[in-house]
Amino acid sequence: MSPLKIEKGASSQSVYALRDPNSEVEEKHTLAVLVENEPGVLARVIGLFSGRGYNIESLTVAEVDHTGHLSRITIVTKGTPAVIEQIKAQLGRIVPVHEVHDLTVEGPSVERELALIKVSGEGDKRVEALRLADIFRANVVDSTLGSFVFEITGTPEKIDAFADLMRPLGLREMARTGVAALARGSE
């Protein structure tokens, strides 16, 4: 195999850019990683992704066991099956990592995300924004004479659809939590 040639002024490429376009198709995977809740662990996990050119589409981190000092990192990433397997294997080798679960392949799971969406508008646009919010079960958490802030929870696709409908009505700003996911069932 010949070494990768990088021309002067060219930036380094990710592993995705080096793939043959006729090779395997990329898939989105949700990974749940149980780690020690200590300084530097998140940086090491994220460093693994950035150092190898893997992209993170969503990242959520929170302590889940206060007495055991454990945190759960939920990562949504995209890659070929080989790349996903490589990511899981490399995550499992990081010392403070206790468990790595690929919720996408381990069975049914539940994914939810929360978003705050600011929409400004007057007249008919304001009425339409409220009507759509009702359809999507979004809550108004702040209101002024010229704007609303909606809180919406659901799948990332639901939030994307709501945001797409709000754009022509005056979407100004959006904050998203990232995906939180759990496997379904008793295990």
Automatic annotation (TrEMBL):
What this protein is called in its record is Acetolactate synthase small subunit
Q: Which Pfam families match?
A: ACT_AHAS_ss (PF22629), ALS_ss_C (PF10369)
Assembly description: Dimer of large and small chains.
Any Gene Ontology biological process: isoleucine biosynthetic process
PANTHER family tied to this protein: ACETOLACTATE SYNTHASE SMALL SUBUNIT, ACETOLACTATE SYNTHASE SMALL SUBUNIT 1, CHLOROPLASTIC
Q: Name one GO molecular function term.
A: acetolactate synthase activity
SUPFAM superfamilies in UniProt: ACT-like
Pathway(s) the chain acts in:
Amino-acid biosynthesis; L-valine biosynthesis; L-valine from pyruvate: step 1/4; Amino-acid biosynthesis; L-isoleucine biosynthesis; L-isoleucine from 2-oxobutanoate: step 1/4
Keywords, in A-Z order: Amino-acid biosynthesis, Branched-chain amino acid biosynthesis, Transferase
NCBIfam families named in the record:
acolac_sm, PRK11895.1
Q: Which family does it belong to?
A: Belongs to the acetolactate synthase small subunit family.
Q: Does the keyword Transferase apply?
A: yes
